[in-house]
Amino acid sequence: MDLGNLPFDLSDPVTLALAIGAALAVLIVILLILALRGVARSARAAEPLIYQMDQLGRAVDSLGRGQEQLTGGITSVSNAQAVGQTQVLQSMETRLAAVQQQMTDRLHDNAMKTARAMSDMQEQVNKQLLGGSEKTTKSLTELQARLATIDRAQENITKLSGDVLSLQDILSNKQTRGAFGEIQLNDIVSKALPKDSYSLQSTLSNGKRADCLIHLPNPPGPIVIDAKFPLEAYEALRAAKSEPEVRAATQAFRTSVRAHIKAISEKYILDGETADGALMFLPSEAVYAELHANFPEVVRDGFAARVWIVSPTTCMATLNTMRAILKDARMREQAGAIRSTLKLLHRDVELVVTRVQKLDTHFNQARADLDGIGTAAERAGKRAARLDNFDFEELTPEIEDASASVARLTRRD
To answer: Are residue 300 and residue 408 in the same domain, yes or no?
Structure first.
């Protein structure tokens, strides 16, 4: 290999070593150039950091100065707060003294008013005690009369206790038991409906006599209540002990009730004369409960025949509903009279309102007069208190004027 005019033999170790050394030298020069460039770039990159570090130092100095100023401001605020607290405490002490004086004056006035009120109250209590004594005497006299009445009632109860013992004998007879049911129905109906809205033992066009006929308006029309319920089958059912007796009594009770429902439907439901239904009255709640608990098919048969089974309790509820129907019908009949009465009532209410307004005006005037009397009495009390503390050496302007007027009157005489 020839380099310029000099021949080189790469197989020669010396030549090879020189070539390698030259290559290493070139490589080192290149590395140095690259390192110098990196140092220049690092210096340029470090310039902003150095600038920021300088700014940070200045900020730290400014913060130190601000902290010193803040410490001085806090000291000033603390001193001003101490002065303000002292002034507030002084102002509060002054106000508290004024409030205490006002409270003392008010307590004195309230004490005077309380004393007057207690005096009035004591007088009223004395009057009430006197009246209470008279009322007590009167009440004791009435109590004695009532005790005498209670003694007579006790005698009647003793007599009635003997009559109750015979009630079982009365109910054991079929006719008397039917009369008992009618009496119970009559008592319930008379309490629930006005007398002119029903009739007892009314005869229908078919010649049958209804225990009670409710005169309802059309529709539904008059409705019949039957009170002749057969209790023999129910009593047999209650008395049955063995299983065959219970089955036989159950069947007899079911048959008896269904026959009674059919009889009521045929006798008391008349087209064009009565309502399209009738009521079967049971004089015992126990029979009613037995039917609905153990004989629901019999109750359904009554619904199908348009015979509604009722007990004393449900009969009262049904009659109250009928009473509302009667009341509504009568109100429709009396609509004109009701409107006239309402007009008169409206006029009376207007008169009452006018008179109440006049009375309110009188009350307001009386209240104002009472307030004026209270103010005058309070002013008179204060003047009397000043007269109690009268001092000849220090005359008040009012007393000096009074003395001067008295002196002038004396010279004229």
So the answer is: no
The full length of the chain comes to 413
Does pTM surpass 0.85? no
SS3 34: helix
- Band of residue 391 on the pLDDT scale cut at 50, 70, 90: low
Query: At 385, is the secondary structure helix, strand, or coil?
Result: helix
Residue % of the chain over a pLDDT of 90: 8
Q: Are residues 400 and 315 in the same domain?
A: no
C-alpha 15/C-alpha 290 separation (Å) is 139
Q: Residues with Cβ < 8 Å from 325, sequence gap 6 or more?
A: 216, 217
Q: Cβ(211)–Cβ(201) under 8 Å?
A: yes
pLDDT digits (tens, 9 = 90+) for 125-151: 777 777 766 777 777 777 778 777 777
147-187 pLDDT, tens digit per residue, is 777 777 777 776 665 554 444 444 444 444 556 678 888 88
Whether 195 and 320 map to the same domain: the answer is yes
CA–CA–CA angle 144, 147, 151 (5° rounding): 140
Q: At which residue do the structure tokens 């310029």 appear?
A: 4
| Domain span holding position 187 | 175-333
> What is the model's pLDDT at position 306?
92
Of 228, 216, 221, the closest CA to residue 183 belongs to: 228
73, part of any domain: no
Kindly list the distances between the CA atom of residue 134 and the CA atoms of 129, 137, 145, 189, 406, in Å, as whole numbers in the listed order: 9, 5, 17, 46, 57
| Residue 378 and residue 244 share a domain | no
Contacts of 381 (CB under 8 A, 6+ apart): 112
Q: Which of 359, 283, 339 is nearest to 314 (CA)?
A: 283
DSSP codes, 133-154:
HHHHHHHHHHHHHHHHHHHHHH
35-39, 51-55, 188-192, 378-382, range with greatest mean pLDDT: 188-192
Residue with tokens 């049971």: 282
- Listed residue (366, 363, 345) closest to 355, CA to CA: 363
Dist CA 289 CA 285 (whole Å): 6
- Interval 288-300: pLDDT, tens: 898 889 999 999 9
Please count the structural domains in the chain.
Answer: 3
